[in-house]
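Below is one protein, fold included:
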Amino acid sequence: MTFLIQGLTMGLAYVAPIGLQNLFVINSALGQPKRRALLTAWIVIFFDIALSLSCFFGIGALMQRYHWLQAVILLVGSLIVIYIGANLLRTHPTTQAPQEVVTALGKTIVTAFVVTWCNPQAIIDGTMLLGAFHVSMPASSAAPFITGVALASVIWFSGITLLISHFKNGFNAKILRGINLVCGLIILLYGAKLFWTFTQLAF
């Protein structure tokens, strides 16, 4: 139980800071019906848990070992992230209920994958953080610890989706547009940072 709680608290600290995943889940909760927003959150949770497992068991270290792989992920990831940010900036919510707009499931899955797995810094940080915990604990404690990390992902992304879905009717088109602009700019800056990192690594 101790390692489960340790994994839960560490997992919450790991997923809580604002990042691409959180911005994607927040935007989904604002613009889609609650049921579809929850589905989006669970898709993100699936990819997030998969990433945590990979980092915990050391697969993410491949990026540190093979620089060409890191460069490819940085390039592709940065371009897709910039595209997502630009799309958010072009979105103009109307005064109609935003929950009437439903994103295609395939697009949702691809975007959830991108914001989770096309983030080299998250893979490297996750590998160092979760990997460090893995090597420092008894083998019998690994399962409850990573279970706690996975549970944190479920609680966090489901929680913010339900919270925002509940209060979103109080948002008008102007507020929604402002949120899109802020999220879009943050994502664009993040994509630009990834691309700059790629140029430094490649050249």
